[in-house]
Amino acid sequence: MLRFSQPVTPAILAHIDAQYSFLKDFSEKLFDTAQKVNELNIQAASSVLEESLSNTQQVICAKNPYEALSIAAGHAQPTAEKMRAYQQHLTNIAARMQAALAQTAESHVPETSRTAAAMADDVERRAAEEAERTRQRQRAAMEAATAPSQQAPQQPQQAQPAQRAAESKSSASPRAGT
Question: Average pLDDT of 107-116?
Answer without folding.
Answer: 92
